[in-house]
Amino acid sequence: MYFLGLGLVLLAMKYLEIGPVAAWSWLVVLAPFGLAVVWWAWADASGYTKRKAMEREDARRKDRIERNREAMGTLSSKRRR
Asked: Alpha-carbon distance 74 to 81, whole Å?
């Protein structure tokens, strides 16, 4: 995501001819978009994306269970201490 944001900023600066970016090669300006594609391909191939999604789901599930226990008046052992 950072590569995409950087690419958009550099692209705008090159197009509007702002600062030293105006003199840079288009290859350098567009490189962050290529890096973003490489990052997303690696993240999907390595399972990084799925692992992070599972961690978020587990955290949501634990929070939901804790809220339900508090609503029922049954505190977990973690909260009793």
From this structure: 14
**Closest listed residue to residue 3, CA positions, set 30, 42, 41:** 30
Q: What pTM, to 2 d.p., does this model score?
A: 0.63
- Of 52, 28, 29, nearest to 40 by C-alpha is 52
Give the integer Cα–Cα distance in Å for 37 and 33: 6
d(CA 3, CA 44): 16
40 with 55, same domain? no
| Domain with 65 in it | 48-81
Return the percentage of the chain with pLDDT > 70, whole number: 91
Model confidence pLDDT, tens digit, residues 53-67: 899 999 999 999 999
Whether 22 and 12 have beta carbons less than 8 Å apart is answered as no
